[in-house]
Write a structure and sequence with these properties.
The complex is a heterodimer of chains A (676) and B (362). Chain A has 676 residues and is mostly helical. Chain A is built from 29 helices and 2 strands. In chain A, a hairpin with a 6-residue loop joins strand 1 and strand 2. In chain A, helix 18 packs antiparallel against helix 27. By secondary structure, chain B is α/β, with parallel strands linked by helices. Chain B folds into 2 domains: 184 residues, Bordetella uptake gene, domain 1 (D-Maltodextrin-Binding Protein, domain 2); 142 residues, D-Maltodextrin-Binding Protein, domain 2. Chain B has 14 helices and 13 strands. In chain B, the strands form 4 sheets. In chain B, strands 2-1-3-12-4-13 form a 6-stranded mixed beta sheet, with helices on both faces. A 3-stranded antiparallel beta sheet of chain B has the order 8-5-9. The longest helix of chain B has 18 residues. The two termini of chain B are 40 Å apart. Classes of the chains: A mainly alpha (676), B alpha/beta (362). At the A-B interface, helix 3, helix 9, helix 15 and helix 20 of A face helix 2, strand 2, strand 7, helix 7 and helix 8 of B.
């Protein structure tokens, strides 16, 4: 325990390092840059850090750290803007926020939702840092206690949140999660390299689909299309109720929820290999379970915002543990961070096991710089939230083209292929129909996010467990049923039982009317068809690569059974039953002045034009046509908005050194940037 | 082994290259331009670190001090980026491409996704690394400089995939008659080490920098026992002790001491060929096909200047260690050693992959 004796002086040194004017200045600079970069959904931390890398070489370590941490820390804060205001999940950290944050914006409570979210973020960040200050000293054995069976159980706990979010028909929710899992297995298998639902002739598919694309496709596109069809503002009636003070008060009233979710965030964050993918769902599930009146979830319940937002900043702090103590990055931006730290100063700060011994003061500086950056970032965000919330009162027809522009660009950045846009469109279609027929989109997304961890941890844990069992039975049992695993099993079972009991009251898609049999039945058959095809495809993998086929077979089979039971139920139940939920029967979508396909055609048009003339030219054409035809704007307004949009795009992409999707034209002629 | 005598051929070439480069370099000027250094991996991998380390140094040494930016084009295990680079023509010398062992191996193994040809490109810089294998304490006690005591033991190893760099350790252990069961699907060697630390894996290997950073402490604390290094190449292309770990035996020595393991013949040739492609010549920087000589010389001079910086040994310690950086003709020689693997060796490895792991590259 001698390390505790060195901890206090180190903590003092860390604060002496941090509280220099130059350090604070760099921190604020980093925060401001991070906020600017954070506007782009799905790009944030990695793009920003890459931008800073060239300057890190030989820089004074503490200044460089302040700049980088300032930038990384605000991304989970700033992407809340996109998830609350536009329903665009910026990163995996803000997916659960969309569920209640966006409905709040639609009710005209955007400012309230934002400030509640920011207050929670801030608090979560501070709780995380305080917890880490002590915990980091003893974290090593704790991290090592989380072996593969433990990680598998946490993943399953994350999956069990499907029970809560499954919607009114649990079978539909389970089938949606199964479909998400199956879509997550597309591509080259991690273990044996077999191809699932992919071929080497389409190299794009061999890498699988990216989370950014699936998140945008499932959440953002259906909402954008729906609002655009209704031709209204995001906030109904274009009125803003609920100021930012209300949000702070909401947070005050729920501070214990915030504390608990922050702790969940830190603890799950420190487990390497899981990163942030499950944290916000577990926090959301916890918020639901601990709320008495669950009827408002999915319709704009502020606790549904406070829970995930408290956990996602705390998770950043937790993620520092594997990064600093083991040199194993918890996320993409942390990986770049490790690389950048080695460039700082004379390169003698080496992230890894030696960090606590040799650089405890630097370690503490990093922890508290992160907390401080959270404070600065949150204050800036709260200050801005009132103004930015006004965006929700603008007629949506003027926002939509810019949102299409942003999400296309974000999707393209994930893989820099034209196919990224096609994938976005296809997943968007799935999202639209999941929403229309009241299949839980969160369940689908949880399935997708956890697909890879489930498969990986199952295979690896199975392999090592059988290795242990071969040695002796006891050793095998000790390995599989460690105390942590048993605790997690209990939590999971409790949460599933409670979840199923409560699921019917939580409507992630809001109220949905039911109607005739035909459309829901056709959609069910399409999904069952895909699952059957994927099953046959997985079954064709040779048996010696069992690791690559077992999960698709089991999950695919299970989902198909769900679909078949649904099919039987659909045949037996009368029209108008809740199973035939269809948003096109009644409600906002049904009453919308514009049709689905004509609205979607605009987006398809942008993608098609990109294929021919590249993104920027296509965008110019798209914006002009859209404003003239769909929005009926005058030429002056049209040109002004188009120029502003393209200028913004070029400015950001130029600063971040990013390319745009090229088209056939660019293949034939050499054009200067940004047209190339 | 010193840096400049990677092969005898190369020393002569290097002198010649520097001699030619000096006058020619004055004609190429990159003022106000931006050099794009494309890496076919994501921002988070080792190649990203490598390029990010060299980029600012290169910028200082190139005439006109252009901005050097590193761009990432990940996908299909780096074959996507390499296929793209194959299509690129020389334009104004502002395009640089970086590959790693993970790009070399699919090329050597005839991966169906490979549409690139190394011999079309011009290498301007190459760097290498070494690797160390180690055992857990319990099994390590049975290791006496030969693997004879380890034949009856079952090992678990956290692996990224049999067709990756892990091919080299897996093949080595197999040649020693050891029974090593790989657990596939981990994301990096750091994850492998963590698995070892948790006691789930019982054998592991790290590249030199990874070993020094993470595993050396395990050895000091008695939790791990070093087994062998892969070694390094000397001037005549023979495997000698790794300069970073001169006290540790090489795989070659362990193999010689172990019954039934041969340091000649097709199996050995195959292992050595893939070892060379994966370790001593792990990372290469290329200019596209058709680049004129004056541009090549400019880059060679610049990379020479980088590696001759007074502080280069210090700042590069964690990047290239004591393995050195090859430029100009040296880099060319390095490339040809790395990519000229005898057909027989390739066939041998492919058969083994199919037999042991069911991997068929079709």
């Amino acid at each position: 325990m001698e390390i505790f004796a060195t901890a206090l002086p180190a903590l003092g040194e860390a604060w002496a390092l941090i509280l220099q004017p130059a350090v604070l200045g760099y921190l604020v600079l980093g925060v401001v840059m991070g906020l600017a970069v954070g506007v782009f959904p799905g790009l944030g931390g990695i793009a920003g850090l890459s931008l800073l890398l060239p300057f890190m070489f030989g820089m004074d370590p503490i200044l460089g750290l302040a700049l980088m941490i300032g930038m990384v820390a605000v991304v989970p804060t700033s992407d809340t803007f996109a998830s609350v205001l536009m329903g665009i999940p910026g990163s995996s950290a803000s997916q659960a926020t969309v569920l209640d944050g966006f409905p709040m914006a639609k009710k005209g409570e955007a400012a309230r939702a934002l400030s509640a979210a920011f207050a929670s973020s801030l608090f979560g960040g501070l709780v995380g840092a305080s917890f880490l200050t002590v915990f980091i000293l003893i974290a090593r054995p704790v991290v090592l206690a989380f072996g593969l069976p433990e990680m598998l159980m946490i993943t399953i706990l994350g999956l069990s949140m499907v029970a809560i979010l499954a919607g009114r028909i649990p079978l539909k929710g389970m089938a949606a999660a199964g479909l998400g899992l199956m879509i997550g297995t597309i591509g080259e298998a991690d273990a044996g390299g077999s191809l699932r639902m992919a071929t080497y002739d389409i190299p794009y598919l061999t890498d699988g689909l990216k989370l950014v694309i699936v998140g945008l496709g499932v959440f953002a596109i259906p909402e954008i299309v729906s609002l655009l069809r209704q031709d209204r503002s995001i906030a109904k009636g274009a009125s803003l109720g609920g100021g930012w003070m209300d949000g702070i008060r909401d947070w005050m009233a729920n501070k214990w929820l915030s504390v608990r979710c922050s702790i969940i965030g830190v603890v799950v964050g420190i487990i390497p290999g899981l990163g942030g993918s499950v944290v916000d769902w577990i926090a959301y599930g916890h918020a639901v379970q601990t709320t008495k009146d669950k009827s408002q979830f999915g319709k704009g319940e502020v606790r549904g915002v406070i829970g995930p937002e408290s956990s996602n900043n705390a998770k950043e702090g937790g993620g520092l543990v594997p990064t600093l103590l083991f040199g194993i990055p918890g996320s993409g931006s942390m990986a770049i961070f490790i690389g950048a730290v080695a460039l700082l100063g004379s390169g003698d700060i080496e992230v890894g096991p030696g960090m606590l011994k040799n650089n405890l003061d630097i370690t503490y500086s990093i922890v508290w710089l992160l907390a401080l950056a959270n404070v600065v970032g949150t204050v800036l965000c709260i200050a801005a939230s009132g103004g930015i919330a006004k965006l929700t009162t603008i007629r949506f027809t003027y926002l939509a083209p810019f949102l299409f522009m942003l999400i296309s660009f974000a999707a393209f950045q994930s893989g820099q292929n034209f196919e990224d846009l096609l994938a976005l469109f296809s997943i968007g279609l799935i999202g639209i129909f999941l929403r229309r027929f009241d299949w839980s989109r969160p369940a689908f997304l949880i399935g997708f996010v956890l697909s890879n961890p489930v498969e990986k941890f199952t295979n690896q844990a199975f392999q090592i467990a059988s290795f242990r069992f071969r040695k002796s039975f006891e050793e095998g049992i000790d390995y599989v049923f460690s105390p942590i695993v048993i605790v997690l099993i209990v939590i999971t079972v409790v949460s599933v039982v409670l979840g199923i009991r409560q699921a019917k009251t939580i409507m992630a898609e809001g109220e949905v009317q039911s109607g005739s049999k035909r459309a829901p039945l056709v959609f069910l058959l399409v999904i069952a068809g895909y699952l059957t095809f994927a099953l046959i495809n997985a079954n064709m993998i040779p048996d010696y690569n069992m690791t690559d086929k077992i999960i698709p077979l089991v999950v695919g089979g299970f989902s198909l059974v769900c679909c078949l039971i649904l099919l039987v139920q659909m045949m037996r139940r009368p029209e108008g039953d809740v199973i035939f939920a269809d948003k096109e029967i009644a409600g906002e979508d049904a009453d919308a002045p514009y049709g689905l396909w004509s609205t979607l055609a605009w987006f398809a048009g942008l993608i098609t034009a990109t294929w021919f003339v590249g993104f920027i030219l296509a965008l110019a054409g798209f914006l002009i046509t859209f404003f003239r035809v769909r929005a009926n704007a005058g030429w002056g307004k049209t040109l002004l908005l188009t120029v502003a949009g393209i200028l913004f795009m070029c400015l950001m992409a130029g600063a971040l050194n990013r390319d745009f999707p090229p088209g056939l034209l660019q293949g034939a002629v050499d054009l200067p940037w940004p047209l190339k | 082994m010193t840096v400049s005598n990677f092969t005898r051929r190369a020393v002569v070439g290097l002198i010649a290259a520097v001699g030619i480069a000096a006058p020619a370099a004055a004609e190429v000027d990159f003022s106000g331009k931006t050099i794009e250094w494309v890496i076919p991996f994501s921002e988070t991998g080792g190649s990203a670190k490598w390029a990010n380390f060299f980029a600012p140094l290169l910028s200082e040494e190139l005439p006109g001090n252009p901005t050097v930016v590193v761009k990432f084009m990940p996908g299909a295990g780096s074959t996507k980026g390499a296929n793209w680079f194959q299509e690129q023509k020389h334009n104004d010398g502002t395009l640089l491409f970086g590959t790693s062992g993970s790009t070399q191996f699919p090329y050597l193994l005839g991966d169906p996704r490979v549409r690139y040809e190394y011999t079309d490109w011009t290498p301007v810089m190459a760097s290498g690394t070494g690797g160390v294998a180690y055992l857990n304490a319990e099994d390590g006690a049975k290791f006496d400089g030969s693997a004879n005591g380890l034949t009856g033991v079952n090992f678990i190893y956290g692996s990224q995939g049999a067709t990756r760099l892990d091919l080299v350790p897996l093949l080595a252990w197999q040649m020693l008659g050891m029974n090593v069961e790989p657990v596939f699907g981990i994301k990096g060697r750091g994850d492998g080490r963590l698995m070892f630390e948790r006691g789930e894996a019982t054998i592991d290997y790290q590249t030199s920098s990874g070993y020094l950073k993470g595993s050396a402490d395990l050895v000091t604390s008695g939790a791990a026992v070093p087994m062998m290094t892969w070694g390094a190449l000397d001037a005549s292309g023979d495997i000698v002790r790794d300069p970073t770990f001169p006290e540790m035996a090489t795989f070659k020595e362990v193999c010689e001491a172990t019954d039934g393991c041969e340091t000649s013949g097709p199996a050995w040739d195959a292992w050595k060929a893939f070892f060379v492609a994966g370790f001593p010549v792990q990372k290469l920087a290329f200019l596209p096909a058709g680049t004129p000589q004056d541009v090549i010389d400019t880059y060679t001079t610049a990379f020479d200047a980088v590696k001759n910086r007074a502080d280069f040994a210090d700042i590069s310690a964690s990047r290239v260690g004591k393995y050195g950086v090859f430029t100009g003709e040296d880099a060319k020689a390095a490339l040809s050693t790395a990519t000229s693997v005898p057909e027989e060796a390739k066939a041998n490895v492919k058969d083994w992959l199919q037999e042991a792991y069911g991997v068929a590259l079709k």
